[in-house]
Amino acid sequence: MSSFEVTGGIKLKGEIEPQGAKNEALQIISAVLLTSEKVTISNIPDILDVNNLIELLSEMNVKVDRIDRHTCIFQADDVNLNYLRSEDFKKKSGRLRGSVMLAGPMLARYKKAFIPKPGGDKIGRRRLDTHLLGFEKLGATFTYYAEDGFFYFSTEGLKGTYLLLDEPSVTGTANLVMASVMAEGTTTIYNAACEPYLQQLCKMLNHMGANISGVGSNMLTIQGVDKLYGTAHHILPDMIEIGSFIGLAAMTQSDITIRNVGLEHLGVIPDRFRQLGIQMNISGDDIHIPSQELYEIQTYMDGGVLTIYDHPWPGLTPDLLSIILVVATQAKGSVLVHQKMFESRLFFVDKLIDMGAQIILCDPHRAAVIGLERKNKLRGIEMSSPDIRAGVALLIAALSAEGKSVIQNIDQIDRGYQYIDKRLQHLGADIRRV
Ligand SMILES: CC(=O)N[C@H]1[C@@H](OP(=O)(O)OP(=O)(O)OC[C@H]2O[C@@H](n3ccc(=O)[nH]c3=O)[C@H](O)[C@@H]2O)O[C@H](CO)[C@@H](O)[C@@H]1O
Ligand SMILES: C=C(OP(=O)(O)O)C(=O)O
């Protein structure tokens, strides 16, 4: 497996354009199964998870016409249902979390679906209860095969109902929306997740002929329709990548402009980085981060130590907390990072501590960071990337550190960040894939 060799301490400069959003792409590409007509998707990120999902669809006999690396026409007019029972499907769909979202459209259109043991980041328990309970309420039954962790669903026909979700699961909501668009009658999904990924999915489905209202809220009402049609859809810029670049710029004292960020879809993300003291100039749809000598973490109005925590949208996505944490290590001041959703996502701080950061891991969910105020630089070390976002946090640490670092297991980073080494080289970074 490849590694990144990074020599840190270089101030970067230039412009960078975010890729299309990974988590939106996974939902949108799954939705092509809902129609036999052509669906054209643009701004697809060229990353491992998305390419694996496209490969799965292709194995299912969906016609995949790759116009270029970021645009694809899909047509699911002759799906091979037998493939879903194969060892190959089990193996390949287990590589990514997003493959669970094939189940909703399969149930809607073919009345049967399989969910294999899902892949994705090993960042703590990741239960599927919201998906399973929702499918059951819509009229599907399932059998669980414990020997291989496979769920098999079938239905006589899904029927609209009232769904009060167990939790606002992102992929769970997407699955249930896709299952109910062609169900008989009306489905109400309350406590729905409403991330921009889901808003985009609902918009696309409405363009295909679905009837979904409440988009952007936590209550979706879906009037079932008989059929969906082809459409074209453009994926939004990846908000997690944008947050990662803001953090990278601040930590490395770089002067970077992030172009075409889709500002109106970023929610609280810029504000959370501002709370770390990071300056940003907004110009049109671009974010310019000037080279900053020092950034100072704000306190609460009563002088209390700041806590940054994750929360379902419109709160801060958990996917940016590892980045927030690494950036705080060079700030002036202190912050408590509270990762409420996942229990194994903060363990990577061990590596930052080895590099010289001052962090107290209070428990699996909370880490207190005492900023070094740039009085000491982090030191380059050899490390391994445990998950996608921790991987990028370590990469940011390495780019800011004195000396050479080696980051192993970079498949984790490639799952979600497109050509990251080349794009960083373009900004002046000393990074090599070996
Ligand atoms: C492919 C994809 O889209 N992956 C994203 C998706 O994963 P995914 O959809 O798998 O994540 P879920 O939203 O289902 O939940 C993630 C975890 O958070 C917990 N949980 C969730 C909601 C809540 O209110 N409280 C709570 O504790 C769940 O129990 C679970 O352990 O959403 C996660 C949460 O934004 C992101 O980290 C992932 O990048
Ligand atoms: C946790 C993430 O991805 P996945 O859900 O695909 O594992 C992520 O994108 O940060």
TrEMBL record:
Name a single GO biological process: cell wall organization
Identify the residues that bind UDP-N-acetyl-alpha-D-glucosamine: 97, 319, 341
User: Could you say which protein family the record assigns here?
Assistant: Belongs to the EPSP synthase family. MurA subfamily.
Q: What is its main location?
A: cytoplasm
Any one GO molecular function term: UDP-N-acetylglucosamine 1-carboxyvinyltransferase activity
- InterPro entries from the UniProt entry: Enolpyruvate_Tfrase_dom, Enolpyruvate_Tfrase_sf, MurA_subfamily, RNA3'P_cycl/enolpyr_Trfase_a/b, UDP_GlcNAc_COvinyl_MurA
Binding of phosphoenolpyruvate, residues: 22-23
Residue intervals of the Enolpyruvate transferase domain:
7-420
Enzyme Commission code(s) on record: 2.5.1.7
**NCBIfam families per the record?**
murA (TIGR01072), PRK09369.1 (NF006873)
What is its EC class?
transferase
Q: Which GO terms describe its cellular component?
A: cytoplasm
Q: Which UniProt keywords apply?
A: Cell cycle, Cell division, Cell shape, Cell wall biogenesis/degradation, Cytoplasm, Peptidoglycan synthesis, Transferase
Q: Name one Pfam family in it.
A: EPSP_synthase
Pathway the protein takes part in: Cell wall biogenesis; peptidoglycan biosynthesis
Q: What does this protein do?
A: Cell wall formation. Adds enolpyruvyl to UDP-N-acetylglucosamine.
Q: What is this protein called?
A: UDP-N-acetylglucosamine 1-carboxyvinyltransferase
The record's catalysed reaction(s) read: phosphoenolpyruvate + UDP-N-acetyl-alpha-D-glucosamine = UDP-N-acetyl-3-O-(1-carboxyvinyl)-alpha-D-glucosamine + phosphate
